[in-house]
Amino acid sequence: MEAVAITGMGVITPVGIGKEAFWQGLIEGRDGIEEITTFDTQPFRSKKGALVRGFNPKEFISPLQIRRLDRASQFAIAAAMMALADTGLTIGEDIPAERAGIILGSGFCGLVNSEAFHRGQVLRGPADLNPILFPNTVPNAAASNASIALGIKGPNSTVVQSFCTAEAALMFACQQLLARRADCMITGGVDELSPILYRGFNELRLTAWDAGNGERSAPYDRTRNGFIPGEGAGVIVLEREQDAVRRETHIYAKIHSIAAAGGADPVGENVARVIATVLQKGERVTIDLIDGAGNSSPRLDAAEAEGLRLALVARSAGIPITSLKSMTGEGIASGGIRIAADLLIMERGVIPPTINYVDPDPRCDLNVIRERRTVPVKTILHTGISLDGTYMAILLERNDGVS
Fold first, then answer.
1. For the chain, how many structural domains are there in total?
2. What DSSP designation does 287 have?
3. Domain containing 237 — which CATH number?
């Protein structure tokens, strides 16, 4: 298969905005989770979220446009601008606009505008609706608004695949490149934490709460009791490797392989199946790090550990694993932020810690990184798990090859 290279990134996260601030937050083990003050959490058992702080859309978007855009679209535009600047591409100059595309993962974006729009319809009637809100009430608003802002005229789509949404968007974007429908694809994920979404997660009893150990994200820890909802954007630029080499741009990593699977119980076996699929070269592939999908959910973390044991057999206990969600929280499309982190880990040779990992769960018999570790990382196995029956795995390799 023709190789796909990742040549740029842009991030807006609860631990830092822009790749340098983001990286500093990761290696410091900065906790991006705090008590929510932007909306009332009194009715809920959970009170905390991983919110983006210090984001100023005026640095990326004109004031006139800002008032027309929902928060998720602002995130997407800013992150995509950062990613393009990072790779050194100008659409319309270095690449024809028709040969550039964007496919973003976006789960429940647009809910804030949707609520305001429909609330106005109920309370004031259709004659008094705010037309500015309507275009941003749909999940594809972020990708579409970013395509307009950046002048992208190639493939434009939005993917929703539960908690594997950004990974699914990446797979779709790779397909566009390999089918030569585009020469450059912008992809990743964007999340906006809204009161409606927060309430939904709480009503389903998926979120963490203070049961005596504090309300926190503690993947693989015995005392974990749920995830912390988060928001942000992680956007990357994809090119065919030969094109990136020809224009002599920096290549963060190559996508060695990517796989997706579905199915209900047994979850652990399904996780193992998708990992085995992505490791198509079997024992010839050395995995230096696992970027775990563990999100502090008792069932999901244990299922991931089981799947890793089944797929990797004896190797699973020795391969280092870290969960960035301990710092950035969980989002429908948080895989985009995680992929950006994977690229920086391989480039800089430092593995960020899994914070709040104090009391190891015997069911999660994994080599969890508690303190940051400086070590060369050439390959990363990135897992994506959604307990409603969606599983993904990506094997990323540093540009100097798989060991």
1. 2
2. P
3. 3.40.47.10
